[in-house]
Amino acid sequence: MRKRLAEQSILFISILKWVILATVIGSIVGLSTSGFLIALNFSIAFAKKYPYYFLSLPIAFWLSALLVKVLAPEAEGHGTEKVIEAVHKRSGRIDKAVVPVKLIATIITLAAGGSAGKEGPCAQIGAGLSSLFADLFRFNNRDRKKLVICGISAGFAAVFGTPIAGAIFGVEVLFVGSLLYDVLLPSFISGITAFQISSALGVKYFHHAIAFTPVFSELFFLKVVVAGICFGMCSFVLVEILRSVERLSGLLNISKPRKGLLGGAAVLLLALAFSRQYLGLGLDTIEASLNGQPVSWYAFFVKSVFTATTLSFGGSGGIVTPIFFVGATSGSLYARIAGLDLATFSAIGLVSLLAGAANTPIAASIMAVELFGPQIAPYAAVSCVISFLMTGHRSVYPSQILSVKKSPSLNVQVGQQIDELNTQVSLRMKSILWLLRVVKRNK
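The structure assignment produced for this chain is given below.
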């Protein structure tokens, strides 16, 4: 009896400890994220008062790259990736200078028209402040990692207004194919707290209920399955474009600020060649797709190029908002080809691209409910899982650790980082014999 009471007492104290700590982290991240989002919205609105604001792109990328290089090299790229790397390699330790540098560099990039997102900085700001909190109160490495994961969850929840999906994202994004159950409670609490504080401070969120009447049929379900396959291929294309442009940047033996000048000029020329709709966050195009308005058939590909150039050549910002753009526009394209409702499949595409490109199918499925309503959720969940599988062993976050193979016929090493994998096809002898029998029967 005493042992049982002792066990329950320890569990009670542990729960109480993490309820308190997660609430504190959520409050800190909610306040900081709100400040960042308000400053970002003001800067973008101010820049757009001038018709040719995007002409400042080369100078903006140069300044962003210079700030990162001199003050906080960890702030380079799209934020969340660096946090994942810090959790896996440094027990969540993050340089204190990352928070202000990432905030300023991202505002400069997005205000000038750089194609990036706003969630990466929020995740990095949240994780950085959580790491600082752990330093001040001298937490051990295990608790530090849990606090930093809470910071990721809180940042994601606060920036998109999706507290449940944000909490799941923080515990799902670190490993491909597994969840950190010991961090679920604090992640939920920190995400909900950050969301409530940001809402109370006036941050406005995008929630778009889709007018979808579910009429189940085998044909419609098959079209959802095919859509998931297509979205997985779009995720594949997005990741490969990001990798290719990053490799191209690495081949240039010049300083990062000079790469910023070159990248800013490239994005400027792309905008003049295609359209200004691919600059910045691209929220207008996302909303147009979700309202059922047709967009250019090549929009998903062009946005991928804009984003890859921005993030690989000096710009600073997140990757999830561009993923939403690519997903919504590719969903709209698929719906036009298949003769389906544009708004419905734009919504499914938006979450499916997140599932595939970030390897977070559970968070993406929950986000479908939080953003678009419960009626679309079953179909979105099916598409998300298929997209996750079709993308293969690749990710916009190459520091993710692979926990499960996506197919037993692929020879990959579980436990390695995504960027270290060498995927090989390994068809079993039984599969080969089965194929030979099928061919023989059809002759």
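Interim note for the steering committee: The chain has 17 helices and four strands. The two ends are 72 Å apart (CA to CA).
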